[in-house]
Amino acid sequence: MDFNGRVADAFPIPLLVAQTRNSLLSSFSNHRKCKNQSCSRLYVSIEDKNSVEDIVIEEDTEETKLYKEEIRVLCKERNLPFEKIKNCRDLGATASSPIVAGRIFRTGRLGDATEADQKILLEGLGITTMVDLRSPTELRDDDALMADIFRGFTDLVWIENGRRRDGCLKELKPGVSPVEKSRKSRFKKGGDDDVVSAEEEMCDVGCDDPQTVPAGRSLTKSGDRKERHFVSLMNEFKYVRGTVTKVRKRDIAKAIIKAPGAFLSKRIWNSLKEPFITEINSGGLIMLNDLLLRFGAPGIKYVLDLCAESDRHPVAFYCTAGKDRTGIITAIILSVCGAKLEDIVEDYSLSANVYAEMNDHKAMVGALSQRNLDAKTFLGAPPEVMADTLLAMKENYGGVEGYCDWIGFGPERREKLRKALMEE
């Protein structure tokens, strides 16, 4: 697939439902089923611009069952055999991926690792760089944030400094949590109107702090030390701010724009959040991915920069379930390295059952208040979500390559990433 300026022939998109698709596919036509009639999903191919009227949607219960069985088999084949760590796969194991095996891994949170898991991850795989994509709120609520698996790793917090800037890093002292201050402050304050979010406190340190260094200076690893980088791609404020852009014409958006306190006061926010939750439920994972690509751009660039440094490998990056934020980073890396689109979508689909395996619905849609969110919308990993996300990137940025240009991860950096991951 050439994402830079054109849509290739036979751009197959797994399709289970038509919801949320019309706005993305309205400029394309000549849709047809996959030539491989043995597949359990329906596909469309995008070739010429026209309309979407000829999409045919068919749902067959037996085919759906077959699809789920295919996902189960693929998960068994590709997910690494950990006892507690969930959804861990080598990006080199993705079909059509040219990435060298053992170089970069996607996974769910690592703090749950058993002793056997730690041995596989640290000795077997030899992970030397971990990248934690979770929000400060998620970190604060993770009792295993400073678990044994992280001993021997130097912790660094990436601090955002505005879009198209590289931000800065603060190195933490051994044993110090990146949200230690948040835990103490939250305990002391307690009242709804006095609640100060973990997001605010973790970001209190700006890039003018003498203890921080420009992120670009720290891309090359210091000697043989192992590092864990905390890179918060999204938080609740970013999701709210992004959703405001979707509902700006509504009274509730006007009210919040006029009342900045809504972003700081739990009481005010709770009184106004219903329209936002409604909008988020309506937009689903595709809208959240769009917000992530827009508002998480600086962090995404930093993660890609880290992965482009060959002396940092093997690298493992993760969020709570290793599904959405991890899925976006995975899709970008696989695409830049030349994996086929349908295989990128398939890899995302393998995360479909991870929340059920984790038995942790509380972690759903990390960094968002979970109350009143539609579990059916957010707990799964339907293939059309990643397919439509890639289509949206085509529409909005000219494709994955265009998106990389937009965030400042240009051709030279992409070539460095390819060499780091693909050359023996």
From TrEMBL:
Protein name, as recorded: Tyrosine specific protein phosphatases domain-containing protein
Q: Which organism is it from?
A: Fragilariopsis cylindrus CCMP1102
Record-linked InterPro entries = Prot-tyrosine_phosphatase-like, Tyr/Ser_Pase_IphP-type
UniProt-recorded Gene Ontology molecular function terms: phosphoprotein phosphatase activity
**Any coiled-coil regions, as ranges:** none
Pfam short name (any one): Y_phosphatase3
